[in-house]
Design brief:
The chain is α+β, with helices and mostly antiparallel strands. The chain is built from 11 helices and 10 strands. The protein has a domain of 234 residues: 3-Layer(aba) Sandwich (Beta-lactamase). The longest helix has 15 residues. The chain starts with a helix and ends in a 10-residue tail after the last helix.
Amino acid sequence: MRELWIVLLLLASGAAATSLDEIRSIIAAPVDGHKTLGIVVGMIDEKGRTVIGYGRIAKDVDQKPDGDTVFEIGSITKVFTSLLLADMVERGEVKPDDPVSKFLPPSVKVPERNGRKITLLDLSMQISGLPRLPNNLRPADFANPYADYDAPKLYAFLSGYGLKRDIGEKYEYSNLGAGLLGHALALKSGLSYEDLIRKRILEPLGMTSTSITLSDSQKKHLAAGYNASLNPVKNWDFDALAGCGALRSTTNDMLRLLAANLELIDTPLKSAMRRMRSVHRETGVDDLEIAMAWHIFHKFGTDVVWHNGGTYGYRTFAGFNPAAKTGVVVLCNTFFDCDSIGFHALDSRYPVTPAK
């Protein structure tokens, strides 16, 4: 009977742990099956952290990725952008319902609809009504699509675009919206987006290996990126839309972000991190809500807070279970969907999608 109560307690708390041997087997399968080149999984809880790597950092380098290997984290950058917004709200520098137009040049005509203006919070929660990408994104180099999308192009798009639905009507994931949010907050601060993120987020969290511009040391630890056919691809650069996907990071640094969100460590950003999850709404997908950048799955009687990312050569996942005080990071240097690995590592009741 005692064993039964233990099982029931674990199920009630959502603590369906995945063994380290199973994680090793799960990440080895797509590498050995030539679906991806390298994967690192980092796990954290109240007892500490574990990092497991498999594969290679590049085809011509016989070195396994580890906790200090640098990857493009793509759209997980949006979490940092919204954390920046939450911190600026906590400091009284901006308000969630401030219209984004307040922080842009007067010549920019941000689209409105039915008397409603797009606010900073609308951008953070992906309910602004803006499309996923601007229709004037016409890269000079399609292998590096955001590199030459600058502020004049962003302003031209905003000034000429008409919203197709009411602001706040529905969730619609938008790289444009998150990039615009980062751009506006940087203008408000008088700093570049990268400098602002470093000063307000990365330095307080001790994330010394996370940045947009790589140091010589970071370049030496950078995993090369590969597409789904395992052909090498270019790293991505960003201009005006940096807030949607420009950051590079490591597993060890990302575990610090999760530790701070789980309050396993104390940081000056605790209140801002709590604020990010204090507002949420439905997405239209079963059991899935959106908070400030973070998505929240309500399954198996528990919540998983998460975001993923992808560029042409990388796929990434970061998530945590606030109740169980557990977090998982998955970084991959191939365009290979690793989300299910992250969910399963957090809770074994989430199935792993077989590599195809």
